[in-house]
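Example record used in the benchmark description.
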Amino acid sequence: MVNPLAWEVIGVIDTGGDCADWTFPAEAGAVRAARAAVRGTLSGWGLDSLVDIAALLVSELVTNSLRHATGPIGVRLVRPAHLGDVLLVEVSDPLPDPPRERVAQIEDESGRGLQLVAHSSRRWGTRPGRNTGKTVWFELAVPE
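Model output (structure tokens):
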């Protein structure tokens, strides 16, 4: 089921295939709720091998959204029919500014999220939302 609010927040690209999306309020429990939603959905799709990395990367991006944006946070999983070996994951928020990768120092307690996304995913990027905000997305390779 597609949540109409999530559709607007995320600014989705129409695709065929398996799709799940959620909208979370910008509050502390959003990270835990997003992780649980991703884990449950991927397990249901038989993608258990991607559960841990997808949940970790979603946690990082939702945390970034919580730190920098106010408003709903959208999370979307897509397994495009025409690309059977890819899982597309999107995290959206109402802040239009794209995230910036930074180099965290050893003693820094934050600043590694985008590096983790970049090094753990097949590809990643950002795009502006349809009407407002932005979406940070990444792809994970689905094992055969």
